[in-house]
Protein backbone atom coordinates (compact mmCIF):
# COMPACT_ATOMS: atom_id res chain seq x y z
CA UNK A 1 0.00 0.00 0.00
CA UNK A 2 1.43 3.38 -0.98
CA UNK A 3 0.97 6.21 1.49
CA UNK A 4 2.27 9.75 1.51
CA UNK A 5 4.35 9.14 4.64
CA UNK A 6 7.97 8.34 3.77
CA UNK A 7 9.29 4.88 4.49
CA UNK A 8 12.74 6.29 5.20
CA UNK A 9 13.29 9.85 6.45
CA UNK A 10 16.80 11.20 6.87
CA UNK A 11 17.25 14.62 8.50
CA UNK A 12 20.49 16.57 8.66
CA UNK A 13 22.65 13.47 8.96
CA UNK A 14 26.35 14.19 9.45
CA UNK A 15 29.29 11.95 10.23
CA UNK A 16 32.75 12.99 11.32
CA UNK A 17 35.39 10.28 11.71
CA UNK A 18 38.13 11.10 14.18
CA UNK A 19 41.50 9.42 14.33
CA UNK A 20 45.01 10.28 15.49
CA UNK A 21 45.76 11.77 12.08
CA UNK A 22 42.81 14.17 12.27
CA UNK A 23 39.12 14.34 11.48
CA UNK A 24 37.28 13.49 8.27
CA UNK A 25 33.79 14.80 7.58
CA UNK A 26 32.28 11.94 5.59
CA UNK A 27 28.70 13.25 5.48
CA UNK A 28 27.51 16.79 5.86
CA UNK A 29 23.88 17.41 6.69
CA UNK A 30 22.19 14.92 4.39
CA UNK A 31 18.39 15.04 4.30
CA UNK A 32 16.26 12.73 2.20
CA UNK A 33 12.74 11.35 2.01
CA UNK A 34 12.14 7.96 0.42
CA UNK A 35 8.53 6.97 -0.24
CA UNK A 36 7.38 3.38 0.41
CA UNK A 37 8.14 1.06 -2.47
CA UNK A 38 10.78 3.34 -3.99
CA UNK A 39 13.94 1.96 -5.56
CA UNK A 40 16.32 4.71 -4.52
CA UNK A 41 19.82 4.71 -6.04
CA UNK A 42 22.70 6.75 -4.62
CA UNK A 43 25.55 7.73 -6.95
CA UNK A 44 28.57 9.86 -6.20
CA UNK A 45 32.34 10.00 -6.55
CA UNK A 46 34.55 7.63 -4.62
CA UNK A 47 34.87 8.59 -0.97
CA UNK A 48 31.79 10.86 -0.91
CA UNK A 49 30.20 8.97 1.96
CA UNK A 50 27.74 6.62 0.21
CA UNK A 51 28.69 3.58 2.26
CA UNK A 52 28.79 5.64 5.43
CA UNK A 53 25.24 6.84 4.77
CA UNK A 54 24.03 3.29 4.24
CA UNK A 55 25.85 1.95 7.29
CA UNK A 56 24.29 4.61 9.50
CA UNK A 57 20.76 3.97 8.23
CA UNK A 58 21.39 0.22 8.64
CA UNK A 59 22.40 0.79 12.27
CA UNK A 60 26.00 -0.35 11.72
CA UNK A 61 27.52 3.06 12.35
CA UNK A 62 26.57 5.90 14.69
CA UNK A 63 25.91 9.32 13.16
CA UNK A 64 27.65 12.41 14.62
CA UNK A 65 24.48 14.48 14.32
CA UNK A 66 21.08 14.39 12.66
CA UNK A 67 18.44 11.69 12.66
CA UNK A 68 16.81 9.05 10.54
CA UNK A 69 13.64 7.05 10.81
CA UNK A 70 12.39 3.90 9.10
CA UNK A 71 8.60 3.53 9.30
CA UNK A 72 7.78 0.00 10.44
CA UNK A 73 4.75 -1.75 9.05
CA UNK A 74 5.17 -5.11 10.70
CA UNK A 75 7.20 -5.36 13.92
CA UNK A 76 7.68 -9.10 13.35
CA UNK A 77 9.75 -8.44 10.24
CA UNK A 78 13.44 -7.64 10.39
CA UNK A 79 14.08 -3.95 9.84
CA UNK A 80 16.61 -4.36 7.06
CA UNK A 81 18.75 -6.75 5.06
CA UNK A 82 22.05 -5.85 3.44
CA UNK A 83 23.69 -7.03 0.23
CA UNK A 84 27.33 -5.98 -0.05
CA UNK A 85 29.88 -5.82 -2.79
CA UNK A 86 31.86 -9.05 -3.13
CA UNK A 87 31.27 -12.05 -0.93
CA UNK A 88 28.99 -11.63 2.02
CA UNK A 89 27.60 -15.14 2.34
CA UNK A 90 28.78 -17.66 4.90
CA UNK A 91 31.42 -19.93 3.29
CA UNK A 92 30.68 -22.81 5.67
CA UNK A 93 26.98 -22.99 4.81
CA UNK A 94 25.32 -24.45 1.74
CA UNK A 95 23.35 -22.25 -0.64
CA UNK A 96 20.14 -23.45 1.01
CA UNK A 97 21.35 -22.73 4.55
CA UNK A 98 22.65 -19.30 3.52
CA UNK A 99 19.29 -18.40 1.99
CA UNK A 100 17.42 -19.77 5.03
CA UNK A 101 19.64 -18.04 7.58
CA UNK A 102 17.49 -14.98 8.35
CA UNK A 103 14.30 -17.01 8.59
CA UNK A 104 15.91 -19.56 10.93
CA UNK A 105 17.31 -16.80 13.12
CA UNK A 106 13.87 -15.43 13.73
CA UNK A 107 12.36 -18.80 14.42
CA UNK A 108 10.26 -19.29 11.28
CA UNK A 109 8.59 -22.70 10.98
CA UNK A 110 10.05 -25.46 8.79
CA UNK A 111 7.21 -25.26 6.25
CA UNK A 112 7.57 -21.50 5.86
CA UNK A 113 11.34 -21.77 5.48
CA UNK A 114 10.93 -24.47 2.84
CA UNK A 115 8.39 -22.43 0.86
CA UNK A 116 10.19 -19.13 1.01
CA UNK A 117 13.70 -20.45 0.37
CA UNK A 118 12.53 -22.65 -2.54
CA UNK A 119 10.77 -19.64 -4.03
CA UNK A 120 13.82 -17.38 -3.95
CA UNK A 121 16.24 -20.10 -5.07
CA UNK A 122 13.92 -20.67 -8.04
CA UNK A 123 13.76 -16.96 -8.76
CA UNK A 124 17.55 -16.67 -8.73
CA UNK A 125 18.13 -19.87 -10.73
CA UNK A 126 19.90 -21.57 -7.82
CA UNK A 127 17.48 -24.39 -7.04
CA UNK A 128 19.71 -27.14 -8.33
CA UNK A 129 22.72 -25.69 -6.50
CA UNK A 130 20.96 -25.75 -3.12
CA UNK A 131 23.48 -28.22 -1.64
CA UNK A 132 26.56 -26.48 -3.01
CA UNK A 133 28.96 -24.51 -0.86
CA UNK A 134 29.99 -20.97 -1.87
CA UNK A 135 33.48 -22.05 -3.04
CA UNK A 136 31.78 -24.28 -5.64
CA UNK A 137 29.96 -21.30 -7.20
CA UNK A 138 30.94 -18.47 -9.56
CA UNK A 139 31.03 -14.86 -8.34
CA UNK A 140 27.69 -14.13 -10.03
CA UNK A 141 26.09 -17.17 -8.36
CA UNK A 142 27.41 -16.11 -4.96
CA UNK A 143 25.84 -12.68 -5.43
CA UNK A 144 22.58 -14.42 -6.34
CA UNK A 145 22.75 -16.28 -3.03
CA UNK A 146 23.15 -12.94 -1.26
CA UNK A 147 20.11 -11.58 -3.07
CA UNK A 148 18.04 -14.70 -2.35
CA UNK A 149 19.02 -14.49 1.32
CA UNK A 150 18.13 -10.79 1.56
CA UNK A 151 14.69 -11.22 -0.04
CA UNK A 152 13.92 -14.45 1.84
CA UNK A 153 14.52 -12.53 5.06
CA UNK A 154 11.58 -10.29 4.06
CA UNK A 155 12.87 -7.10 5.68
CA UNK A 156 11.07 -3.77 5.87
CA UNK A 157 13.80 -2.19 3.71
CA UNK A 158 16.66 -3.51 1.64
CA UNK A 159 20.13 -1.96 1.45
CA UNK A 160 22.50 -2.84 -1.38
CA UNK A 161 26.06 -1.52 -1.50
CA UNK A 162 27.52 -1.92 -5.01
CA UNK A 163 26.36 -5.53 -5.18
CA UNK A 164 27.27 -6.03 -8.85
CA UNK A 165 30.44 -3.98 -9.13
CA UNK A 166 32.77 -6.98 -9.16
CA UNK A 167 30.87 -8.76 -11.95
CA UNK A 168 31.53 -8.74 -15.68
CA UNK A 169 29.11 -6.84 -17.92
CA UNK A 170 27.03 -9.87 -19.02
CA UNK A 171 26.60 -11.18 -15.49
CA UNK A 172 25.78 -7.70 -14.31
CA UNK A 173 22.90 -7.29 -16.78
CA UNK A 174 21.56 -10.76 -15.91
CA UNK A 175 21.64 -10.01 -12.21
CA UNK A 176 20.06 -6.58 -12.71
CA UNK A 177 17.23 -8.29 -14.60
CA UNK A 178 16.80 -10.88 -11.86
CA UNK A 179 16.89 -8.26 -9.15
CA UNK A 180 14.20 -6.22 -10.90
CA UNK A 181 12.02 -9.31 -11.40
CA UNK A 182 12.24 -10.27 -7.72
CA UNK A 183 11.80 -6.68 -6.57
CA UNK A 184 8.63 -6.33 -8.71
CA UNK A 185 6.94 -9.07 -6.62
CA UNK A 186 6.73 -6.97 -3.45
CA UNK A 187 8.28 -3.61 -4.32
CA UNK A 188 10.25 -3.23 -1.15
CA UNK A 189 11.84 0.11 -0.39
CA UNK A 190 15.46 -0.15 -1.52
CA UNK A 191 18.56 2.00 -1.14
CA UNK A 192 21.10 0.85 -3.72
CA UNK A 193 24.60 2.30 -4.06
CA UNK A 194 26.46 2.22 -7.35
CA UNK A 195 29.25 3.95 -9.25
CA UNK A 196 27.49 3.22 -12.53
CA UNK A 197 25.14 5.90 -13.85
CA UNK A 198 23.78 3.38 -16.39
CA UNK A 199 22.93 0.98 -13.57
CA UNK A 200 21.29 3.79 -11.58
CA UNK A 201 19.00 4.80 -14.46
CA UNK A 202 18.23 1.15 -15.28
CA UNK A 203 17.12 0.25 -11.77
CA UNK A 204 16.02 3.37 -9.96
CA UNK A 205 12.87 5.41 -9.38
CA UNK A 206 14.81 8.12 -7.59
CA UNK A 207 18.49 8.89 -8.09
CA UNK A 208 20.36 10.77 -5.41
CA UNK A 209 23.55 12.38 -6.72
CA UNK A 210 26.09 13.20 -4.00
CA UNK A 211 28.86 15.79 -4.00
CA UNK A 212 32.52 14.98 -3.60
CA UNK A 213 33.80 14.70 -0.08
CA UNK A 214 32.24 15.74 2.27
CA UNK A 215 29.10 14.10 1.01
CA UNK A 216 26.07 16.30 0.55
CA UNK A 217 23.12 15.84 -1.76
CA UNK A 218 23.72 17.62 -5.05
CA UNK A 219 20.59 16.63 -6.96
CA UNK A 220 17.68 14.20 -6.89
CA UNK A 221 16.49 12.95 -10.25
CA UNK A 222 13.20 11.06 -10.66
CA UNK A 223 13.17 8.27 -13.22
CA UNK A 224 9.70 7.54 -14.53
CA UNK A 225 10.30 4.67 -16.93
CA UNK A 226 7.33 2.32 -16.62
CA UNK A 227 7.70 -0.97 -14.77
CA UNK A 228 8.28 -3.80 -15.23
CA UNK A 229 11.36 -2.70 -17.13
CA UNK A 230 13.10 -4.53 -19.94
CA UNK A 231 16.75 -3.57 -19.54
CA UNK A 232 17.82 -3.96 -23.16
CA UNK A 233 14.81 -2.06 -24.51
CA UNK A 234 15.28 0.62 -21.90
CA UNK A 235 18.83 1.20 -23.11
CA UNK A 236 17.56 1.77 -26.66
CA UNK A 237 15.19 4.48 -25.48
CA UNK A 238 16.60 7.96 -26.30
CA UNK A 239 15.33 9.13 -22.91
CA UNK A 240 17.72 6.68 -21.26
CA UNK A 241 20.68 8.42 -22.89
CA UNK A 242 19.34 11.84 -21.92
CA UNK A 243 18.99 10.83 -18.29
CA UNK A 244 22.48 9.31 -18.19
CA UNK A 245 23.79 12.55 -19.74
CA UNK A 246 21.96 14.72 -17.17
CA UNK A 247 23.23 12.71 -14.22
CA UNK A 248 26.76 12.66 -15.59
CA UNK A 249 26.47 16.45 -15.88
CA UNK A 250 25.85 16.64 -12.13
CA UNK A 251 28.59 14.14 -11.36
CA UNK A 252 31.37 15.32 -13.63
CA UNK A 253 32.51 18.30 -11.57
CA UNK A 254 32.29 16.22 -8.39
CA UNK A 255 34.37 13.38 -9.81
CA UNK A 256 37.02 15.93 -10.91
CA UNK A 257 37.01 17.46 -7.43
CA UNK A 258 37.37 14.03 -5.79
CA UNK A 259 40.31 13.22 -8.12
CA UNK A 260 42.09 16.48 -7.38
CA UNK A 261 41.63 15.98 -3.63
CA UNK A 262 43.24 12.53 -3.82
CA UNK A 263 46.40 13.79 -5.64
N1 LIG B 1 35.94 3.95 9.85
C1 LIG B 1 36.43 5.05 9.26
N2 LIG B 1 37.39 5.79 9.86
C2 LIG B 1 37.89 6.91 9.31
N3 LIG B 1 37.46 7.39 8.11
C3 LIG B 1 36.50 6.70 7.46
C4 LIG B 1 35.94 5.50 8.00
N4 LIG B 1 35.00 5.02 7.11
C5 LIG B 1 34.99 5.90 6.08
N5 LIG B 1 35.88 6.90 6.28
C6 LIG B 1 36.14 8.05 5.40
O1 LIG B 1 34.87 8.67 5.13
C7 LIG B 1 34.82 9.06 3.76
C8 LIG B 1 33.60 8.40 3.10
O2 LIG B 1 33.83 7.01 2.98
P1 LIG B 1 32.75 6.02 2.33
O3 LIG B 1 33.33 4.65 2.34
O4 LIG B 1 31.44 6.23 2.97
O5 LIG B 1 32.69 6.60 0.83
P2 LIG B 1 32.04 5.95 -0.48
O6 LIG B 1 31.36 7.05 -1.19
O7 LIG B 1 31.23 4.78 -0.12
O8 LIG B 1 33.34 5.50 -1.27
P3 LIG B 1 33.51 4.40 -2.45
O9 LIG B 1 32.60 4.81 -3.54
O10 LIG B 1 34.97 4.52 -2.83
O11 LIG B 1 33.16 3.06 -1.85
C9 LIG B 1 36.13 8.70 3.13
O12 LIG B 1 36.97 9.83 3.17
C10 LIG B 1 36.67 7.62 4.05
O13 LIG B 1 38.08 7.62 4.05
Summarize the topology.
Layout: E1 8-19, E2 22-34, E3 39-43, H1 50-57, E4 65-70, E5 80-83, H2 95-105, H3 110-123, H4 139-152, E6 157-161, H5 169-186, E7 189-193, H6 197-203, E8 206-210, E9 217-222, H7 231-236, H8 238-262
Parallel strand pairs: 3-7, 3-8, 5-6, 6-7
Antiparallel strand pairs: 1-2, 1-4, 8-9
Helix pairs in contact: 2-3, 2-4, 3-4, 4-5, 6-8
What does this 3D model show about the protein?
Helices cover 39% and strands 23% of the residues. The chain has 263 residues and is an alpha/beta fold. The longest helix is centred in the last third of the chain and has 25 residues, at 238-262. The protein has helices at residues 50-57, 95-105, 110-123, 139-152, 169-186, 197-203, 231-236, 238-262, and strands spanning 8-19, 22-34, 39-43, 65-70, 80-83, 157-161, 189-193, 206-210, 217-222. The chain has a domain at 1-73 and 195-263: P-loop containing nucleotide triphosphate hydrolases (Rossmann fold, 3-Layer(aba) Sandwich). The radius of gyration is 19 Å and the shape is globular. Belongs to the ABC transporter superfamily. Residues 8-237 form the ABC transporter domain. Keywords: ATP-binding, Nucleotide-binding, Transport.
At a glance:
The protein has about 260 residues and is α/β, with parallel strands linked by helices. The protein has helices at about 50-55, 95-105, 110-125, 140-150, 170-185, 195-205, 230-235, 240-260, and strands at about 10-20, 20-35, 40-45, 65-70, 80-85, 155-160, 190-195, 205-210, 215-220. The structure holds adenosine-5'-triphosphate.
Amino acid sequence: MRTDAPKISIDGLSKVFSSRSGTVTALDSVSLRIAPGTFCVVVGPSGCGKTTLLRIVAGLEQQSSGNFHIARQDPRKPLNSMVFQGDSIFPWMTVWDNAAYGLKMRGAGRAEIKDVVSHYLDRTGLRRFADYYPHQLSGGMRQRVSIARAFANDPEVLFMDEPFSALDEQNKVLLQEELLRIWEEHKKTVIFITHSVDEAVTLGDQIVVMTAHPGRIKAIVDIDFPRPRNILELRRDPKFGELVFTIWGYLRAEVDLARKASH
